[in-house]
Amino acid sequence: MTSSLVQLQATSAAAGQRLDRYLAEQLSDYSRSRIQAWIRDGRVEVDGETAPSSLKLQGGEKIAVDPAPLEPLKAKAENIPLDILFEDEHVIAVNKDAGMTVHAGAGDEARSGTLVNALLHRFEQLSTVGGDLRPGIVHRLDRLTSGVLLVAKTDQAHRALAEQFEQRVVKKTYLALVHGNVPDPARNPPKKGRVVKPGKDVWVRLETLLGRDPNRRHRQAITQDGKEAVTDYRPLGASDRASLLEVRIHTGRTHQIRVHLSSVGRPIIGDVLYGAPADPAQSRFFLHAWKLACRHPVSGDPLELEAPPPPEFKALAADLRL
Asked: What is the band of 74 on the pLDDT scale with cuts at 50, 70, 90?
């Protein structure tokens, strides 16, 4: 095996899980089909021996994964439906489905079914700043996150939008369904974070440094030498079992909301990577990019976008009486 070796140790909670399913949860940047290919090719060892995808873990096994390098890819057009929230000659706003990868690239072999592939089929022109794999893509959402995503048609629009993201003037608001009761911070201040009141509403602010988890490279973690990450949240509804949160981020770190909510003991429902219990009935985690506000990249006019939560999000919220 090579220097890119990934080493894991199965926890007791993994007992009874198939090897391929467990690795797909732990190595979330890779698809289950690619992990199964690695297992077939002998690139995965359990306690020093190759094993089949169907191996049932007992807990405690030492697992070594040697990821195969991916070929350079070029995005291809595919006829895939898109929910367009806004479009003009410079910019597109899409309501991305949960489960759709934004673009193929290193660590993700998805060659079909991506948002980029759908955009290439639908639109004659996309910006070239992102290269062959990411035409038009200015920012990203995790594969299992739904909601608003901006796309640039021209290089001019792309650079102007990228500058707004870099300057942190783009306002991003999310909805999250999380495990456990999150009380009103005005009446019950939290043990972690601090209460802020940027307007008429009371929020909890989490300010940490985030970086790659030194033990699990496909996770992010609160570290001493990471980059600044600032997240605000407030409950919109709560029960004993779960809460609906409105979340605003002031920085755009990888997995920021997921790490921060997990750090206060309120992991997002379905987000097994960050501490939520596994539920075979859930095919996504319940984080939705609800609103995005910025300046139009050419006219400078305010551009305010909103994506309604998808049916499965609303159904679970109703089921939990939120």
From this structure: low
Whether the full predicted model's pTM is greater than 0.90, yes or no, is no
Residue 303's pLDDT is what? 97
Give the per-residue pLDDT at 107: 46
CATH number of 171-319: 3.30.2350.10
DSSP 134-151: STTB-S---TT-EEEEEE
List, in order, residues 6 or more apart from 88 with CB less than 8 Å away.
Answer: none
Nearest to 229, CA basis, from 182, 272, 201, 263 = 263
**Residue whose entry in the numeric block shows the structure tokens 């049932």:** 56
Handedness of CA 233, 236, 237, 243 (dihedral sign): negative
Contact 229, 247 (CB under 8 A): no
Among residues 20, 97, 108, 142, which one is catalytic?
142
CATH T-level topology, domain 6-65: 3.10.290
Supply the mean pLDDT for the chain. Answer: 91
**What is the gyration radius of the CA atoms in the chain, in angstroms?**
20
Are domains 84-166 and 171-319 of this chain identical in fold? yes
| N-term to C-term CA, the chain | 49
Task: Assess whether 142 carries a catalytic annotation.
Answer: yes
Per-residue pLDDT tens digits for 33-47? 778 889 999 999 999
Confidence of residue 247 (pLDDT cuts 50, 70, 90): very high
Is residue 246 pLDDT above 90, yes or no? yes
Contact yes or no for 109/122 (Cβ under 8 A):
no
The class of domain 84-166 in CATH terms is: alpha beta
Going from N- to C-terminal start, the domains of the chain cover 6-65, 84-166, 171-319
Count CA atoms closer than 13 A to 155's CA, side-chain side.
4
